[in-house]
Design goal:
The chain has one domain: Spore Coat Polysaccharide Biosynthesis Protein SpsA, Chain A. It is 35% helix and 23% strand. The strands form three sheets. An eight-stranded mixed sheet has the order 3-2-1-4-11-6-12-9, with helices on both faces. A three-stranded antiparallel sheet has the order 8-7-10. The longest helix has 19 residues. The N and C termini lie far apart (34 Å). It comes from Actinobacteria bacterium BACL15 MAG-120619-bin91.
Length: 229
Amino acid sequence: MDLEKDVTVGLIVDGFTDDALETVKTIKEHSDCAIAIISIGDAGALFEQMDKRTYLISVNPGAAWGDCANVFLEKVNSKYVIIMDPSTRFTADAISPVVVELEKGEYVAVGWRGGLVNTDDQWRSVDDKGPGEVDVLFSYFMAFNREAMIEVGGFNPRALYYRNADMEYSLKIRQAGGRLLQMELPLIQDRHHGYHDTDPEYRELQSKKNYDRILDKYRGKSAILSPRR
């Protein structure tokens, strides 16, 4: 497989570009995949990493996270697309094991962190059960079969903020019959600016809006969930 052609890692960068730059360097150190960066506002030093397999899209401040994520699914031509948070960094090759799983065709999405919806508390939390089939994956690192995602449809454009938008999309995939796999990967997380350095009032308001949509659309639809474990 030609990783530069067949796999693209997509990063949505909203400030803190120096940290995002370090993340891009770790991807390049451990993989030959293509890299697509959407910079919301000033791209800063990210221009330093532009080359034949790395490209940058600048959008205006205030762009919705869901809209940005959909750009990767709609505009990138790779067979597989990985949406990854800028706080996630490679410590070794995290691409190859994911591609191996996706190539089997059993799962349409594979990720690093996720879990099972807790039905005992009316779908208000997610339990991390470790590697295996899951209900939801988190956008720290989510790899998709792009064609399957086009059939499912994109992320909700009403998701201005990332938090819980990844869960909403995961359940959308499961409702369409797709299966999701959580697996251990050689990744670490540095400071998660998207959470810790976002205005707390905005963070909680937008997180709640995203989660309320989950409850409205999916709560009680246990048939779409993965086997309990």
